[in-house]
Amino acid sequence: QVQLVESGGGLVKPGGSLRLSCAPSGDPFSWSIMGWFRQAPGKEREFVAAIRRHGDNTAYRDSLKGRFTIIRDNAKNTVYLQMNSLEPEDTAVYYCAANKNRIITSAMADPRFYNYWGQGTQVTVSS
Predict the structure, then answer these.
(1) In this predicted model, what pLDDT tens digit does every residue of 76-123 receive, in sequence order?
(2) What φ, ψ does residue 12 adopt, rounded to 5°?
(3) What are residue 93's DSSP bridge partners?
(4) What is the per-residue burial (b if ≥16 Cβ within 10 Å, else e) of 91-124?
């Protein structure tokens, strides 16, 4: 059985930075694509960023481009989400998700194409 384990969440002041990590645990797991989603209280889950295991293909939510960066370390089988210039509106539970199979680029932002999910890590941006 495979579990995705997120870490790195916490409380940060506006303008600060956080780096989230996601790594699979349990059975050996070679993901093809890994993504980050977030859900704020009272709102629907929304796409943040995604990256393929190989190549340079990444995808970002338009409003987050320039502040958030998704990075992979294949040797560690880990994906990171570097979040800079954080705003109170970034407060949410951040979820890591993955798929073992390749998905088309247009589907990278669609949560229905991810079949492994982590438990989430809370990010709170507040002064």
Answers:
(1) 999 999 999 999 999 999 999 999 999 998 999 999 999 999 999 999
(2) -140, 150
(3) 39, 122
(4) bbbbbbbbbeeebeeebbbeeebbebbbebbebe
Q: Which residues contact residue 61 at a Cβ distance below 8 angstroms, ignoring those fewer than 6 apart?
A: 46, 47, 48, 49, 68, 109
Q: How many CB atoms lie within 10 A of CB 5?
A: 15
State the number of CA atoms in the 13 A half-sphere of 10 facing the CB. 11
Contact 123, 90 (CB under 8 A): yes
Structure tokens at 9: 């969440």
- H-type helices in 1-125, by residue range? none
Closest CA to 35 of 2, 58, 1: 58
